[in-house]
Design a protein that fits this description.
By secondary structure, this protein is mainly α. It has one domain. 74% of the residues lie in helices and 0% in strands. It contains three helices and no strands. The protein is elongated and about 85 Å long.
């Protein structure tokens, strides 16, 4: 029974680590393929290529600032339907949401990796306890 728990825990852990790493790589490559650079006037990572969670977050924040500057501080929902700046605010909101979605994806991937490592360590702990118990029982 303990052997089954050990093997199951380690296999689930390995699966989570592989899935997390694969997700991180796919999201990072997809962002990099877009050739986005964090705006020079961003408060963080200015000029950096958007290919990770921090650069995506920084670019999303500066897009919001640019949109608010263009619309006089109003968000999409606050603009009149006939206002030509509403399209600018809408595009900015879409771009921000897309970048924040990638930030969340990086977070989920990172969490999967960490939980996978935890499962592996638990499995190894189960095996160690089982081995020590077996040695103690044989004495």
């Amino acid at each position: 029974m303990r052997r089954t728990a050990y093997i199951f825990s380690v296999l689930v852990g390995l699966l989570l680590v592989v899935a997390g790493v694969a997700t991180w790589v796919v999201v990072s490559n997809t962002l990099a393929d877009q050739k986005i650079t964090v705006s020079d006037d961003a408060s963080c990572l200015a000029g950096d290529e958007v290919n990770g969670p921090l650069s995506a977050y920084c670019e999303a924040k500066i897009i919001d600032q640019h949109a608010l500057d263009a619309t006089g501080g109003l968000h999409y929902s606050e603009l009149d339907r006939e206002d030509p700046l509403r399209a600018v605010a809408q595009s900015a909101a879409f771009l921000q949401a897309s970048l924040f979605t990638s930030v969340v994806a990086f977070g989920v991937a990172g969490m999967a990796i960490l939980v996978g490592i935890l499962f592996i360590l638990i499995g190894l702990g189960i095996r160690d306890v089982a081995d020590r118990t077996a040695r103690t029982t044989l004495k």
